[in-house]
Amino acid sequence: MPVSGSSGFLVGFDAETHAQLDAIREAMLDPSPRRIGRLDQWGLADTYEVFAEIAWYQEFPIVMADGTQIDASLSMPRNLAPGRRCPTIVMPAPLIGVGRLAYLGMLPRWVLGGYAVLCYSQRGLAQSTGEIDVAGPQDVADGIEILEYVSGLEGVDADRIGCFGASYGAGTSMLLAAKDQRVKAVAGASAWGDLFASLYENGTRHMQAFEALVALFGEERCSKEFRKVIEKIRADVIDDEVREFARIRSPKEYVPAYNANGLPILMTTYWHETIFSVPGVVDFFNKLRSPKSLLVQIGDHGNGELAGMLGLISKPTEMTYRWMDHHLGGSAGNGVPPQFGVRSEYMHNLLSDLSHPDWESYVLPRKRFHLGAVASGQRDGQMAEGQPQPGWTRSLKATGQPTEAVVAPELIRTGVAERLGLPHVYRTAGIDRERALIWTSHPMDRPMRVQGELELRVTVAAQEGNATVVAYLLDCDPATGNAAIITSAPCTVTDQQPGQPVTATFALQPAHYVLSKGRRLQLIVNAHDPFFSDANTIPSTLELSSPQGTESYIDIPLAPLP
C-alpha cells in the first residue's frame, strides 16, 4: 500500500483558504467599505466591520538584539479609557508557509473579548529572517525579547499575558513560559511534551513524520545545529548530541518550573496523532501540579483546531478562549467557565464528549489477552483471557515492503477522514500471512470500550540480530474481514546475537475506541511500515515466540460500554 506525506501543517491551506486569508488581511490593514465588502462571499463582512470599529491592526518587524527581523502583527482595542490596560495574548506561529497569518481568523474574537494580541512568525519562518532553531534556546530568547516589547506597550497589562500556539507555536509557547514568568497562562493545540519520544519511539525512528517536518521547515533555512541533527537522525546516529537537542526542546524537562510558578497549562492532542508522541503528552500532563487541562480528540495532528483558527468553532480554540478568560480576566469565552482535567472524544463519534478529573480516573484497568498458537486448519492465532500460552513459534518474513496494515495511509489526511466518521478500511482477510502475523479475539458479547493505555509483550529472534516489528490493534468485522485501526506502535531491538531470542515489552499509543457487539479485536504484527525506519535485514526471517515464563500477551483497557 503506498503511503504519502502531508504538504503542510494540518493538511495545508487550500487555494480558497489562502484567498480568504488574503482578503481578511487586506480588510484589516485597510478597513474600507470595498475591502470589507469583499469578505461578503465568505459571510465575514459583518465580523470585520465590527472589528474595524473597535480595534486597530498593524503589521511590522520586531528587530531582535542580533538584528534578526521577526515578522509580527499587533491588534489592540480602540479608544481605551485613560489608565485602562488589557490582558494580552502572544501567539507564535504554527509550522506553515503563511506563518502568523494562520491566526488571522482568531483576532476578532480576542479583541471583542478585550484582549490585545501580538502574533509573530519565529525566526526563519514565513517572512521572518534568520535561521530556524526549532523552538530552541534562540527561539526562547526571541520570545523573551518579544515579551519585553509587548509589556512596554501602552494599554498592555504586563501582569496578564498569556501564550497560545498550534503545533510549532504550541511548543514555542510552553518553552517560553518555562523561562519567563511574565507568561501567566498557556494553551497549546497539537502540542508536544517529549520531542525525543516523538522522533524515536521504542527504539524506532519516526522517519516519515520527521522528513515531512524537515520539508516544511525548509532545510536550507535551518540552523547549522539542526542540519547536523537532521543528518544524524537520517544516518541512525542517535547520540548524546541528538538527545540533548531534543531534551532542551521538550516541555517535560521544565515541569519543576511550571509547578513552582503554578502555570496554568491547556494542551490538546489526538488519538491517531502521527507527528508528536501522545504518551509524551500524557506523561507531561500527569507530572504537572499546576492548573491543567488535556483535550484528546478524534483524528490526527492539527485536524481539530483548523476551523477555530479560521474564525469558526472548534473545541481547542473555544477551550483556549475560556482558559485565558479564567486566568487573565478577558471575555472572549462568552462567560463559559474552563474545563480542568481530561476531556475526550471516542473514535469515531465526533459528537462524543467525556470529562474526567484526571488521567488516573480516565483510564480503565487493563485485561490481559494471551497470544496463542495457530490451531490446525487455521491461518491466525487466538488472543484470549485465561492461561498463558507458551511454546509456540511463528515465522515472519521481512521484505522491506508494507502490508495492508500501516499506521496511516497518509500523514494527517487520514485523521481528517476519521473526524468525519470515515476511518480507513483495512482489508485484513487478504493480508499475506507470511509477511504479517495475526491474532483474533472471540466476538464481543456486548458493546465494549477500549479506554486508556496498552502494552504488548512478544519474543523476537532475527537472523542478523537487529529486528523491527510494528504492532496494530484493530476492530474487525468477522463477517467481512474488514477492520478499523484502534492503535499501534513499533519496536526495534538492536545489538543482539544473530538468532538470539529477545523479549520486548512495549507500550502502544493510548486509545479511546468503542466496539459494537459481535466485533472482534485483531492484533497484527508485521516487519515494515513506511512510517518508521526499518532495522531488519532485507530479505530475512524473524521468529516470534512465546517462551515459558515470558509468554506473549497484549494488555488492553477493556470494559463494557456503560
Question: What do you see in this structure?
Answer:
With 562 residues, the protein is α+β, with helices and mostly antiparallel strands. The protein has two domains: 15-361, Rossmann fold, CATH 3.40.50.1820; 367-560, Sandwich (Jelly Rolls). It is built from 16 helices and 25 strands. The strands form three sheets. Strands 13, 14, 15, 16, 17, 18, 19, 20, 21, 22, 23, 24 and 25 form a 13-stranded mixed sheet that branches. Strands 1-2-4-3-5-6-9-10-11-12 form a ten-stranded mixed sheet, with helices on both faces. The longest helix is centred in the N-terminal third of the chain and has 15 residues, at 15-29. It is elongated and about 85 Å long. Mean pLDDT is 95; it is low at 1-8.
